[in-house]
Amino acid sequence: MSAANGRMSVSSSHDGALFMDLMEAINRLIAASPTVAAHFLIALATWLLAVAIMLRLTPADEIKLIRAGNVAAAVWAGGTVIAMAIPIAAAMKYSGTTAEVIVWSLLAALVQLLAYFAACRIAGKTKEKLESGDMASAVFVAATQIAIALITAAALSG
Q1: Which residues sit opposite 80 in a β-bridge?
Q2: Boundaries of every domain in the chain
Q3: DSSP letter string, 117-148
Q4: Burial class (CB in 10 A: 0-12, 13-18, 19+), 119
Q5: CB 92 within 8 A of CB 101
Q6: Phi-psi region for residue 10, left (φ > 0), alpha (ψ -120 to 50) or beta?
Q7: DSSP code of residue 133
Q8: What is the mean pLDDT, run by run of 10 residues, along the chain of 158 residues?
Q9: Gyration radius from the chain CA atoms
Q10: Which residues contact 2 (CB under 8 A, 6 or more apart)?
């Protein structure tokens, strides 16, 4: 840096190197964009599909209950939404190829589906508990799903 006319300026050689570093970073970002987009879309599609399956297989209509103001149904479904995203995000982060993202995302979704059904079985009488607004069961199922999601995500990290 030099002081010219009372202003600080950066030398032109430094400007050129900084500009080249910036251009290289932009080029890398552009080159990676199709892969990043593909991984994101695969993960999003897997997440949407898995959440839709889980909501469809629950005996109660969680969306209808949520719209009616049933907080327990919102906690129950919210646990599903969060728990499904955690291992799918890990699958995306730790996978090197698009094929790996697909395989690990689907496997993570399957593990979460199994965890969900195990938690529901332990909670018992799912439909009645959801419809009656049983918060204890809702929190238990949501917490169990999130706990399994965190364990699955850690396992995916190697």
Answers
A1: none
A2: 41-156
A3: HHHHHHH--HHHHHHHT-HHHHHHHHHHHHHH
A4: buried
A5: yes
A6: beta
A7: T
A8: 50 65 73 80 91 87 94 94 94 87 89 88 88 94 94 89
A9: 23
A10: 8, 9, 11
